[in-house]
Amino acid sequence: MKIGFVGLGKMGGNMVQRLLGGGHEVVAFDVNEGARKQAQAEGAGVLDSLEKLAGSLNSPRTVWVMVPAGKPTEETIETLASMLSEGDILIDGGNSNFRDSMRRARELEKNGISFLDAGTSGGVWGLEIGYCMMIGGDEAAFLKVEPVFKTLAPKDGYAHVGPIGAGHFVKMVHNGIEYALLQAYGEGFEIMDAKEEFDLDLAQIAHLWNQGSVIRSWLLELAERAFQNDPELELVRGYVEDSGEGRWTVAEAIEENVPAPVITLSLLERFRSRQDDSFSAKVIAALRNEFGGHAVKKK
Running DSSP on this structure, what letter comes out for residue 231? Predict the structure, then answer.
């Protein structure tokens, strides 16, 4: 089928390649000229404005938005909404907050435009392996564009999970779980790295654990690759960003009175990773010195 695609970054560009490989006709736009040229070289029809993209599609039109969450998504959808018409379908495959998706869907519905929120997981490996896709929205709209999801995903790798907002909600929780898994692996490997007397080969152990152990996973496969390339991770700074989904997951856990201590602490550890020198740790050291005379390390 023919689809408009907005956003040709690390994931969007690869998704366009996978769609083209699956026989779909793609017309694409990105604010970055280099990204547009790359997509054009791969066989996509490339246009230099959203207006031209919308005009190149015949109704009923399908447009996929794959830009950063927040203001970029908001502005892109607002602009497209003024160009699309009744019967068209707009898909947001980014990491938008599910509440924003619900609001956007209500606004688009006033003009007869269907909205699907497609939580997308797979990262830079999605081109080769496929993307796991969690889709929320009207089921009739989902069925109309299902061939697109079928091409992007591996076998059994996509599902209509519920009404508007459900797709991005499920993806949000998915990313919250990811935070906790990464934290657990990080702590485990740090314990082993600290045991200098054993001189453990962390790449070997990551590979070993993937051979039938109960903690085997794709993340462990990636850990093996990382340790093979840089055994002591000397080229990596221990600074961990977050893109918002972990915060939203913790907020929803609080809203729903669900205890989620592991996910919450994994988020807080990311905050701690960005501190060059923790002020709270200074307070603790100072207090230990005050009440017990414990030694304090001076700067």
Answer: T
